[in-house]
Specification:
The protein is an all-alpha fold. It has 13 helices and 2 strands; from the N terminus they run αααααβααααβαααα. The protein has a two-stranded antiparallel ribbon.
């Protein structure tokens, strides 16, 4: 009960901080930080989706960023055809977020289902390498699409349109990102604490025993893998709107590595921890890069210390979590 209360306090303080942040940036005349924290929310969403398959499913993926890239390019390509005379699959382009973001989610989810159906037939190092291979395939595929900018990427004329909300306004866009993240974390929390989540965690611990008990572990894994892929696609769509730019670099394996670092920093198997990990990673990158381009020299030892002395990451330190699963 003590840990639960402490967790609730930490989560409440974190939510309140994000809610009042735009007012704080205006109060201290640091509005430029709003864009940085919008990135934190977006990467927090992507990292939390990775935590679903890594922290709860035990699936170590080095290709999660490819789903972000697919979601980002779905938005970019649809926006491109909005102003281009050509059609895409027989349809005009669009800048309507309800359409473009839905397509981004669907495209990333379908790709996740297809690649997951293959990757999940393997385990351990083989699974890691196959997810890496699929990610690099996506990277080189979009790098070769000269019509959509090739390796130079694809720029948007403006952010998408979402009902009566003005996404071109940074404060509005920030709160949209925050709302999506909160909704996802609420849904994910219910999932991992449901019967489905219990089977998924048991599969992580001992898949053979789960199968002996009569559960089709493969179905549970492919379901959560597809869901996590779709959410990462949504994060990619939001990131493309934030930057008004889609690039193949978003799919590179190094970007997947950064997502892994965020999850490890924040705490695997905590859901809320990866958001803290994303904030820590991006804030360290932003402020340390002011002093040295070799900022990762500082991040490296810091990550080692977290791994050695905080089994549940920084979030685990805040809530007083033990090394075992919650």
């Amino acid at each position: 009960m003590k840990n639960l209360t402490r967790k609730m306090i930490v989560n409440t303080i974190g939510l309140l901080f994000f809610l009042v942040l735009p007012f704080l940036t205006q109060l201290f005349e640091q509005e430029y930080l709003l864009s940085l924290f919008s990135l934190i929310l977006i990467y927090g969403l992507a990292a939390a989706s990775l935590d679903l398959i890594l922290g709860f499913g035990g699936m170590i993926s080095l290709g999660h960023a490819v789903f972000m890239g697919i979601g980002g390019y779905a938005v970019g390509i649809l926006a491109f055809h909005k102003y281009d005379a050509s059609l895409i699959f027989g349809f005009d382009g669009s800048e309507n977020a309800l359409i473009t973001w839905s397509i981004a989610i669907a495209a990333a989810g379908i790709f996740g289902f297809v690649t997951g159906a293959i990757s999940l037939r393997t385990k351990g190092m083989y699974f890691i390498m196959i997810t890496l291979a699929f990610a690099q395939m996506g990277y080189y595929f979009f790098s070769a699409l000269s019509k959509y900018g090739g390796s130079d990427g694809l720029s948007l004329y403006t952010r998408n349109e979402l009902l009566a909300f003005d996404l071109s306004d940074d404060v509005t866009f920030y709160y949209i990102c925050l709302a999506i993240l909160v909704v996802f974390l609420s849904i994910a929390y219910r999932i991992v604490n449901s019967h489905f989540g219990k089977v998924l965690r048991a599969t992580k611990q001992n898949e053979q025993r789960v199968q002996v008990l009569g559960f089709a572990s493969y179905r549970y894994k492919i379901t959560i893998y597809t869901f996590a892929s779709a959410v990462a696609g949504l994060a990619g769509a939001m990131l493309t709107n934030q930057n008004e730019f889609a690039s193949p670099e978003l799919m590179h394996w190094t970007k997947s590595g950064e997502l892994l670092v965020m999850v490890i920093l924040g705490g695997m198997g905590t859901l809320f921890g990866p958001v803290l990990g994303a904030a820590t990673f991006l804030l360290m990158e932003y402020f340390l890069a002011m002093y040295t381009e070799h900022w990762m020299i500082i991040l490296g030892p810091f990550l080692i210390l977290v791994v050695l002395f905080a089994k549940k990451g920084l979030y685990g330190l805040l809530i007083g979590s033990k090394s075992k699963d919650d």
